[in-house]
Amino acid sequence: MKPLSIYSSRLIVLALLLTWPLLGSCQYLRYLRDLNPTMPGTKPISQEPFDALLKKYVDEQGMVNYRAFRADSSKLNAYLTTVSNTLPNEQWSQNDQLAYWLNAYNAFTIQRVLRGYPVKSIRQLGGDKTLVNTVWDQRFIRLDKEKYSLNDLEQRLIRRKFNEYRVHFALVCAAMSCPKLRREAYVGSRLNQQLEDQARDFINDPAKNKLAPANAPQVSEIFNFYPGDFKKGDNTIQKTLNKYSAGPKVAADAPLKYLTYNWALNEQK
Fold first, then answer.
1. Residue ranges of the DUF547 domain (predicted)?
2. Spatial distance between the Cα atoms of 21 and 240, rounded to a whole number of angstroms
3. Which of 10, 117, 138, 202 is the most buried (most CB within 10 A)?
4. Would you write out the chain's pLDDT as a tens digit for each of its 269 residues?
5. Is there a domain that residue 241 lies in?
6. Residue 114 in contact with residue 70, Cβ under 8 Å?
7. In degrees, to the nearest 5, what angle opens at C-alpha 139 toward C-alphas 136 and 142?
8. Is 13 inside any structural domain?
9. How many domains are there within the chain?
10. pTM, rounded to two decimals
11. Is 233 contained in some domain?
């Protein structure tokens, strides 16, 4: 999950606007616009092909056997061809739509890693200019007849269309500090339960969140990447932590210290 809040992205875009002649590209301007590609007449696709691949190549810790997965990549490519050719529309339920996009993001991320494998970090597959040439800005994702990037899916579509902070516990950008990759595909009929499971698993993972002592918790940098997503209405990051914590609770006004994000590949050893 590339760290990019709506607020920080606007500041970055402003800075880029001032320097775009030097960069020779203004593709970052697309992040100011929402994205909602649709295709009339489609029905929710079967997630069974992706589900079977996740069960085969992802372990209980959410680690991926990329080496073996690469040998079976034709099945992933076939699934993603169906994704590319069967976009959702407003006749789909909101849960079916969101499940489709969560699976698409995770599956296209896996595909991108497999295309560059072996690699120690997904960040090595792109440049270092945020919104311009990182791996998350590469437009390799075909949806109908257009090409999009992982940032397009996350920043312009999922975060803006669904107003659901739990997506940050489900989107996996192939890094150790990301949420665990779920060993099953998301499906509309069980999506709420699946997102609740992801939230509990992520927040109670001591490698990602240390909630004690109550007045000095150390939490995932994901909460720092997207603070506004967790602060809508009367919600706060602290309330989110306490809602899902199975152990220590943090103080309502506890200052948050963010753990350094580990971008090493989430690969089985």
1. 90-203
2. 42
3. 202
4. 556 554 555 555 555 444 444 444 455 677 788 899 999 999 999 999 999 999 999 999 999 999 999 999 999 999 999 999 999 999 999 999 999 999 999 999 999 999 999 999 999 999 999 888 999 999 999 999 999 999 999 999 999 999 999 999 999 999 999 999 999 999 999 999 999 999 999 999 999 999 999 999 999 999 999 999 999 999 999 999 999 999 999 999 999 999 999 999 999 99
5. no
6. yes
7. 120
8. yes
9. 1
10. 0.91
11. no
